[in-house]
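Researcher: Let's do a round of design. I'm pasting the structure tokens now; please hold your answer until I've finished.
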């Protein structure tokens, strides 16, 4: 993830650096010319001219130049407008009025962009999530999202993680809508050695979830993971039905699963799901195949909900946390 963004930003920062160098060269030429004039007029030659010549005070105009330089790279890689505004404001705060030298100007600019990027990412720590899950028995997690984004696969990955942590999850096959969805979850439950509660196709998804919770209580399971049918964010009836599943199952945590490859649509979908169904955290699947990454950067900033995990492949262990500092460092540093 972020490969394109990283490359584009590097090119932009190189270009900005080139501009600053040119400006500095002009400044140096001007200062030297002035010094020569003074000497010619018989005024004493400055003894310590290096600092004034080699340092440059960044103005608001310079910041606008810097921002203009990276803006296109960010837009091309699906970073949302409100995130761009935030980055612009951060750069003004961090850089305007700062004195930089030719030697450290690149570092200063990179530091400011890095700081801003890490600020816009809101993520959940794995340990904090595990603490939440352990805080109640059974802890109920509902997974929602558009069709095909990776919900069922993500549930299997989360179940695998929880099992490795010594917890006992139960799976609820509450997608009673899509052909073969129950069998798909059943395959995961068998491979992972987990209980699965299912009804038939066309059954009420909320009733399946209800039964799964009752089963978890009766066998002393720690977590219930509820799979749901993918809904187009535009289909009012299906979205309504999902809101009903949420009302009935009263989840402790509702997780929106999005597909990194959908780009800007990811954020649009999340906004609609938040408005119509409500959710607490996000998981972004298919981060391994998304070269841009900007939508992932925008998601938590716009929804104000933390990113719990990103999906990094099709295997059970392909689930990672998104650390803001490490992510920003990866994007900015060569
Ligand atoms: N590369 C990659 N593929 C993934 C990831 N997560 C899911 N997939 C693939 O995406 C496809 C759809 O995954 P599902 O888990 O069935 O998606 P879903 O949201 O449950 O789909 P519906 O139930 O039809 O709404 C499958 O081929 C998965 O293997 C991921 O993190 N990386
Ligand atoms: Mg599914």
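Researcher: That's everything. Go ahead.
Model: Designed sequence:
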């Amino acid at each position: 993830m972020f490969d394109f963004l990283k490359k584009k930003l590097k090119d932009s920062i190189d270009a900005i650096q080139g501009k600053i160098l040119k400006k500095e060269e002009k400044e140096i030429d001007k200062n030297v010319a002035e010094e020569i004039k003074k000497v010619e007029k018989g005024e004493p030659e400055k003894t310590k001219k290096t600092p004034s010549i080699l340092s440059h005070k960044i103005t608001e105009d310079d910041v606008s130049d810097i921002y203009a330089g990276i803006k296109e790279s960010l837009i091309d890689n699906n970073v949302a407008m409100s995130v761009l505004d935030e980055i612009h404001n951060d750069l003004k705060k961090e850089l305007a009025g700062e004195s930089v030298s030719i030697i450290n100007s690149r570092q200063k600019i990179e530091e400011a962009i890095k700081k801003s990027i890490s600020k816009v990412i809101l993520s959940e720590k794995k340990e904090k999530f595990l603490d939440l899950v352990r805080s109640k028995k059974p802890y109920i997690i509902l997974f929602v999202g558009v069709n095909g984004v990776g919900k069922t696969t993500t549930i299997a990955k989360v179940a695998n993680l929880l099992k490795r942590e010594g917890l006992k999850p139960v799976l609820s096959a509450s997608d009673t809508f899509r052909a073969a969805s129950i069998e798909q979850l059943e395959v995961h439950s068998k491979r992972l050695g987990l209980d699965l509660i299912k009804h038939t196709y066309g059954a009420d998804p909320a009733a399946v979830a209800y039964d799964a919770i009752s089963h978890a209580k009766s066998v002393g399971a720690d977590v219930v993971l509820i799979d749901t049918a993918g809904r187009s964010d535009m289909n009012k009836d299906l979205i309504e039905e999902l809101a009903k599943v949420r009302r009935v199952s009263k989840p402790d945590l509702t997780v929106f699963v999005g597909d990194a490859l959908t780009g800007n649509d990811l954020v649009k979908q999340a906004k609609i799901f938040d408005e119509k169904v409500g959710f607490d955290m996000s998981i972004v699947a298919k981060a391994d195949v998304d070269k841009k990454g900007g939508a992932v950067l925008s998601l938590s900033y716009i929804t104000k909900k933390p990113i719990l995990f990103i999906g990094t492949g099709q295997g059970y262990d392909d689930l990672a946390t998104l650390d803001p500092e490490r992510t920003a460092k990866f994007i900015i540093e060569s």
